Amino acid sequence: MSTDHSKELFERSGRVIPGGVNSPVRAFRAVGGTPRFAARGEGASIYDVDGNRYVDYVCSWGPLIAGHAHPDVVRAVQLAAARGSSFGAPTEAEAELAELVVEMVPSIELVRFVSSGTEATMSALRVARGYTGRSKVIKFAGCYHGHADAFLVNAGSGALTFGTPDSPGVTAGTASDTLTARYNDLGSVGRLFAENPDQVACVIVEPYAGNMGLVLPAAGFLEGLRELTRQHGALLIFDEVITGFRAARGGAQERENVFPDLTTLGKVIGGGLPVGAFGGRAEIMECLSPVGPVYQAGTLSGNPLAMAAGIATLRLLRDGDAYRRLEALGAQLEQGLRKAFARRGVQAQHVRRGSMFCVFFTGQPVSDLEGAKRSDTARYASYFHAMLERGVWLAPAQFETGFVSLAHTEAAIDATIAAAEQALATLEVRA
Ligand code: HOZ
Fold first, then answer.
1. Residue to mutate (ligand 1; options 157, 160, 241, 264; most atoms within 8 A of CB)
2. Which of 120, 329, 378, 424 is the right S-S partner for 264, CB 3.0 to 4.6 Å?
3. Are 250 and 76 in contact (CB under 8 A)?
4. Domain final position from 280, 301, 317
5. CATH of the domain at 211
6. Atom 4, ligand 1: which residue's CA is nearest?
7. What is the domain range of residue 400?
8. Going by CA atoms, what residue is nearest to atom 8 of ligand 1?
């Protein structure tokens, strides 16, 4: 497999962009080697600039639930672009996407659009602080809520991968308002509430933690958070940037039947264009300017191209059997991988919910960051490269989640399972 053109581009980019990339995990530093530069995508396939084709399980880190360049999404964006790319004035498309969000996500009565998941979480936190008049936020070790200062404390994703979960540049004052609990450990949350009486504005959690690999909530964990936040007068924020419209039509909250006060969205809601959103109970969202005093704004918020892509994507998901298909494809992949790993005698934890999946190279079940960190990341790197050589595009870091899209076929998944069995054989030889 030739990668010459990717190598040239990586060198060129490295001369003008820090690390050659605009988001750290893309640089392949966690797995070594040269990142493949993407040229185009079609359905479940991604092609690099050297003409190599891969089955894509990154799906742009989640947004591409309908696959690459879905014709409905392409058409919608083309039509919107021809009418004008940005107005700095409200448009009908914003109302339409907002109506879809309110219809689909159970706990959202009012929603505001921004341009990224990071903006969504940082704005939701501001609303929670404005609404409660309190300063502190409880988050969970290994959960990642974008790169706003308040959340770069014990963070997951690239921050975890590159050993900077507490980033330099975040002031001590900001960091001291962020309290960290242990995922799946309600006791740790209760203790933080007890130590900080009447000071905690909100608890923010990824209902399925998707930035330390994939870690699922234990029975009663999300319900317990709901209870504790009510008891202590704090808001509960579900960061559904990954799980929104992915875990189910109404996100993880619908699937788990636990409803937060505020929800943050991103990824799928933009169908591959930059959209984030935050929403929740009207009484809370009405704190936002111009109705209330909490300020938040954005020149490209509700951008017409992004709204068009979001509307086209959510329409594909709203009706019909999209989630049944995603579940079936996810189950096929999980079962096939389990068998392939067992046949090759490789110990692993296969975690999946719907179309989200992850393989940890450890013999012990993973329920929190400590467990995730027990995974053999060197082994993951070898597996990643052996899969890439066989035409399978996985996340270039252990502490991320894989995604299946509606464009994946049963045949593509069978081919992936066969590739995994071969890839695992090479690990044995190398071990
Ligand atoms: N923060 C993303 C993974 N959880 C990576 C985004 C990107 O590199 O595109």
1. 157
2. 120
3. no
4. 317
5. 3.40.640.10
6. 157
7. 4-69+320-430
8. 23
